[in-house]
Write a structure and sequence with these properties.
By secondary structure, the protein is of the alpha/beta class. It has helices at 6-13, 21-33, 40-47, 63-78, 92-104, 122-129, 153-166, 182-198, 212-223, 237-249, 283-298, and strands spanning 52-57, 82-87, 109-112, 134-137, 148-151, 171-176, 203-208, 231-234, 259-264, 277-280, 306-309, 312-314. The protein has three domains: 6-37, no CATH class; 50-150 and 283-310, Response regulator (Rossmann fold, 3-Layer(aba) Sandwich); 153-282, Response regulator (Rossmann fold, 3-Layer(aba) Sandwich), CATH 3.40.50.2300.
Length: 319
């Protein structure tokens, strides 16, 4: 329509300095009028450079991962990247299929929070060896030599345990997540260590739950048993939901009948009155830092060791 060559159009759209200003204006105005968009797949094939990042999470329903994706997307967009978000539903088979989809769509890199059942990392190593960086976040494998971005899990658990001790609690039920996950082991080790050092006289009941329903059953059993705790610690928002459901069914008043504290992203604790005291683990900050680490990997400058996001106490009225 403009009676100019394809190469001139291409360079005009890319704002090449060899093309006259008036030609650039004509090309861009007509492109906009025709609602022209470059074929991103063709560009990837020609340049061998992708602007797509694969993100694999156990589930999208949780507020933590909503917050994580929002922070990640904001940071990625500022660098011209877009996201392909996939969920594994905590199944290693779905996880591997999602990883295959990332490779099929020529993702520049992959960010993944592994499922609680994942033990074989062969497919991830193969992806890394093929030239596609893989960065593990939040729920990460307990191995060295791979990029990882985590909340400061030990610090978060220490802060929770230390606050419980300072509040002079006597009998504590602490509910942690899936035993096999490194995030659980780190938080449990720090939690127990704090009590052993600073509050050995306090009674601790330790339980594990893989979902909110199981957490609710653990809380119900303890709250209706002969050795009722005065405080319940929840390792995550999902566990906290189950604990609060059990307390509500028993018509317990917080903190008069039972005190509560949790590690949380912040949204769930704010839904209750009084608000639940929690140790903040920001999904948004984790998302931003995850992109930063992946971007450094793409530039050939991966960080050494595990990258940590700090934690802090947010006081509510529950303890």
């Amino acid at each position: 329509m403009l009676q100019i060559s394809i190469s001139t159009v291409s360079r005009a759209l890319k704002d090449h300095p060899d093309i006259a200003v008036q030609t650039k204006i004509k090309v861009k105005e007509l492109a906009e009028l025709m609602e022209y968009e470059p074929n991103s797949f063709a560009v990837q094939l020609r340049t061998n450079a992708s602007k797509l990042i694969g993100v694999i999470v156990p589930e999208i329903s949780g507020h933590f991962y909503h917050s994580y994706i929002a922070g990640l997307e904001e940071e990625a967009r500022s660098w011209g990247y877009s996201l392909m978000i996939l969920q594994s539903n905590n199944h290693p088979e779905s996880e591997l299929e999602n990883l295959r989809l990332c490779r099929f769509n020529r993702a520049a890199g992959v960010l993944i929070a592994i499922s609680s059942q994942t033990s074989d990392l062969t497919a991830f190593y193969r992806t890394i060896d093929s030239g596609t960086p893989v960065v593990f976040f939040d729920k990460v494998p307990d191995v060295k030599g791979v990029p990882k971005v985590c909340i400061a899990d030990a610090e978060a658990a220490y802060l929770a345990a230390d606050l419980i001790i300072k509040k002079h609690k006597k009998n504590v039920l602490a509910i942690f997540g899936e035993k096999s996950l490194s995030i659980t082991r780190k938080r449990l080790k720090a939690f127990l260590g704090t009590f052993q050092r600073n509050g050995p006289e306090i009674k601790l009941q330790i339980a594990h739950a893989v979902n909110s329903d199981e957490a609710g059953k653990n809380a119900w059993s303890a709250l209706t048993g002969p050795d009722k705790p005065d405080t319940i610690f929840s390792m995550s928002d999902e566990i906290l939901v189950g604990v609060i459901k059990a307390a509500n069914k028993l018509k317990l008043s917080i903190p008069t009948d039972i005190s509560m504290i949790s590690i949380s992203n912040g949204m769930i604790p704010s839904l209750f009155e009084p608000e639940i005291t929690y140790i903040e683990t920001s999904g948004s900050l984790l998302g931003k830092k995850s992109f930063d680490v992946l971007h450094r990997c793409l530039l050939g400058k991966p960080p050494q060791g595990e990258v940590m996001i700090g934690a802090r106490i947010i006081e509510g009225g529950s303890i």
